[in-house]
Amino acid sequence: MANDGVDKRGDARTEPGLTSRSVAVVGGGWAGCAAAVELARAGYKVTLFEAARTLGGRARRVDTDRAHLDNGQHILLGAYSETLRLMKLTGVDRDQTLLSLPLQMRYPPGSGGMDFVAPRLPAPLHLALALLRAKGLRRDDKLSLARFSTTARWMGWRLHTDCSVSELLQRFDQTPRLIQLMWRPLCLAALNTPPERASAQIFLNVLRDSLGARRSASDMLLPRADLSALLPEAAGAFVEAHGGSVRGGAKVQAIRPIENRLWQLEVSGAAVGGQWSTYFSGVVLATGASQAATLLHDMPGADTSALCRQLTAFEPEAITTCYLQYDRATRLGLPFYALLDDPHNYQWGQFVFDRGQLDEAQAGLLAVVVSASGEAAGQSQDLLAEAVAVQLAAVFQRPELGRPEWFKVITEKRATYACTPGLVRPGNASGLAGLAIAGDYTAGDYPATLESAVRSGVAAAGVLGRTTI
User: Fold this and answer.
1) What 3 state SS string does the chain have?
2) Is 393:378 a contact under the CB 8 Å cutoff?
3) Would you place residue 20 in the very low, low, confident or very high pLDDT band (cuts 50, 70, 90)?
4) Average pLDDT for 245-269
5) Is the separation of the CB atoms in 193 and 374 below 8 Å?
6) Across-strand partners of 24?
């Protein structure tokens, strides 16, 4: 067994493998992987614990009975500076793993949507020209969008008091058609929260760093590789290359502060031979919010009640991805399209991705995303997949899309939290020396995105570096 800790019969104070530079990261999602990389880079000996066998948390590869799939389809943005930095640091080739597309909102021709594509020109000229050329928008829609952009810039993308996205759009006199075709799908994609319940300030933060920044910041980056290979597995390899270890299938059951500013972890799982007690000089707790609250509850010698209340206050939001496999020759005109959803008529799909245009091994595979999918996920998988296939056949006017060879519906029930106005999120500092918190739910400018998780992990590593011996 690696000497990154000791068993219950050992002495933590004399164990040669335990130093002030030995730290644990609990949780192998994107936040935990980011924290582990930053700590390893800073010279710490890192042990990364993950209860599942695959790194990535709520954005990972899953092995199904049909194929290797992701537990959700994601779009990254050029504004995701920390994610792109860590990908480069860990040796992930951006050009090989991401397809870069200009900012766009394109609906299938003849489906009643619009066609908005930003040319690769300097900002803000790219948006002005995209708006001028946009099809499917009337003059008042275009003026409405231009007014929103101008006013938001003048305001510095800040609100004195947070409100819902719907209220913000009403204040800015946005047209019903523009809300339906542009703002609502953007809000769902970015915040995974319906506009009537979503935070306008967080939405403005996302727009500020994409639409309101340099042109490349608004680029849409579609993963060619599976989500675990996109960063988490490279992060694990980086940790091991820097003298650390990755323990998959190892669930941390308890975390306790002990004498000499050490932390005791109780770990279980086949990867550690059943039950295991181990010690570290610092810990980054990078699990989901509810799991973090469970581990912090009634921690001996520490008052964590206020922090636990924050962690248990989040309302989960689901995301459902419906994978439909067709003949390998099946192909859409673009790598992805927006869809007009109408849940009252069982048209659940909001975006469809042609996975074959991202990875040739997945030719003929379409991924249809339903954000804030609580109602859709309540349907039986057979009925939901059938409804999605019928929706595709109708909007693309291609009857064969109504008859997939097979389907797989994956719902991540706690994909994100509801990003509501004025939501108070905990900081990375736990209030306990040597213990930091990381996750897309910690305080920050962004909603629960991959970039938010990565930024939180980086920040937590910094906190731990300042509070360990």
Assistant:
1) CCCCCCCCCCCCCCCCCCCCCEEEEECCEHHHHHHHHHHHHCCCEEEEEECCCCCECCCCEEECCCCEEECCCCCEECCCHHHHHHHHHCCCCHHHHEEEECCEEECCCCCCCCEEECCCCCCCHHHHHHHHHCECCCHHHHHHHHHHHHHHHHCCCCCCCCCEHHHHHHHCCCCHHHHHHHHHHHHHHHHCCCCCCCEHHHHHHHHHHHCCCCHHHHCEEEECCCHHHHCHHHHHHHHHHCCCEEEECCEEEEEEEEHHHEEEEEEEEHHHCEEEEEEECEEEECCCHHHHHHHHCCCCCCCCHHHHHHHCCCCEEEEEEEEEECCCCCCCCCCEEECCCEHHHCECCCEEEEHHHCCHHHCCEEEEEEECCHHHHCCCHHHHHHHHHHHHHHHCCCHHHHCCCEEEEEEEEEEEECCCCCCCCCCCECCCCCEEECCCCCCCCCCCCHHHHHHHHHHHHHHHHHHCC
2) no
3) low
4) 92
5) no
6) 47, 283
pTM: 0.94
The pLDDT of residue 19 is above 80: no
CB-count burial class (<10 Å; 0-12, 13-18, 19+) for 38: buried
- Confidence class of residue 469 from pLDDT cuts 50, 70 and 90? low
Q: Identify the CA nearest to 347 among candidates 389, 378, 398, 403.
A: 389
